[in-house]
Amino acid sequence: MKKLYINGEWCEGTAVTTTRSPSDLSDTVDEYASAGKDEAERAIAAAHAAAPAWGLAGVQQRADALDAIGTEILARKTELGALLAREEGKTLPEAIGEAARAGAIFKFFAQEALRVRGDKLASVRPNLDVDITREPVGVVGIIAPWNFPIAIPAWKIAPALAYGNTVVFKPADLVPGCGWALADIISRSGLPAGVFNLAMGPGRIVGEALTTDTRVNAVSFTGSTATGERVLMACAKRRAKVQLEMGGKNPLVVLADADLDVAVNAAIQGAFYSTGQRCTASSRLIVDESIYSRFIDAMTAKLATLKVGHALEQGIDIGPVVDSSQLEQDLSYIEIAKAEGARLAFGGERLKRATEGYFLNPALFVDCEPGMRHVREEIFGPVASVLPARGYEHALALANDTEYGLTAGICTTSLKHATHFKRNARAGMVMVNVPTAGVDYHVPFGGTKGSSYGSREQGSAAVEFFTTMKTAYTLA
């Protein structure tokens, strides 16, 4: 059984979670200790006690620790990727790529630890100097989702440590294996006891402790919109800093002048890869009516070539849905779409494979209308809806007609339309002729409207959340 990591020691929990592969339900991944209230409290107490010394530690110590973590992740990316594929269901190439991204993130923030900047200004009053510096927030609670079980924890934990904070990390209860493996690597990096703590367990216990305990100064959360709103309210009540990344219902606009091969590739990659289980997935495909039929024909032809199967099997394009609950949600929305009058052009049925798993043929609905539930609500599965548009202006209006605003894409050969779309799409990230899903590790990540709250994640923008500013005056 894999244990919790609290105050520099591996320890038992109050319960045990057993995880199984969604590709093969007979495959037990492992057993993991689950924290109760006492263990969650001990983890927070350890981080609180370690915060003052770590906040004043030299930046080289932080940089060296993060670099060591990144080095080990990259050296073991194939092993970690296999664990990720087995546990969460991403195809092996995607999973290895995610592990490599996690390693690169730690390497990036190892250098960012050395680049924390401040300002020195002249006061408007004579004989005064003004220094503006950044300091750690303190104890950071990190609540990570199941769909990117090593990359998202990396892009939260790495900057938190780089800027001198201590961490209590709660991985998703559905897929604790990658979180535990990451904690195991971190435990060998030379961090002082209490600086990093792993508290696996359910949100109703560990998540509640992180959001309500006054010793936790900031919470970074990625997950569902409903849970994010509860996190926000709990943190706001005690005035803790909070950062939320939540849902998306992202549009991909395909104009009449688009390169059809480019557009189909962007749509397939964005909507269906990673089994559509990405907050950046392009689940609304908005296509100019003049090429509507050609686009649908090309999409269905391409979908027919994709292979759905065991995540560790070579040549597979799409792995299983993560668990039975998510599969039921996907199938429910497929039935809702049919009942609403959308036409199912491809897929949508559960598939049988050599092993018992949660395999779903990607679903493409066409002739959809903007008000349909499956067009407006996040499904978080391999389901995409195609809407016809009467030219660019109509397409832009449809793209913006959503409560979410994480990412938006356009496929066009027109510089005019691409430029206008980048300026007028109401989303935090905009893609031109590339999939809406897939971002670099060294640039800001985040959205607008109902998708995000607080400052951006990743890249140099992460300093805004994980530090606080101090202004100091000195009589010269």
UniProtKB/TrEMBL annotation:
Catalytic residues identified in the record: E245
MF terms (GO), sorted A to Z: oxidoreductase activity, acting on the aldehyde or oxo group of donors, NAD or NADP as acceptor
SUPFAM superfamilies tied to this protein: ALDH-like
Keyword Disulfide bond: no
Gene3D superfamilies registered for this protein in UniProt: Aldehyde Dehydrogenase, Chain A, domain 1, Aldehyde Dehydrogenase, Chain A, domain 2
InterPro entries cross-referenced by the UniProt entry: Ald_DH/histidinol_DH, Ald_DH_C, Ald_DH_CS_CYS, Ald_DH_CS_GLU, Ald_DH_N, Aldehyde_DH_dom
Swiss-Prot/TrEMBL keywords: Oxidoreductase
Chain ranges of the Aldehyde dehydrogenase domain: 18-471
Family under the similarity heading: Belongs to the aldehyde dehydrogenase family.
Name the record gives this protein: Aldehyde dehydrogenase family protein
Species the sequence originates in: Zemynaea arenosa
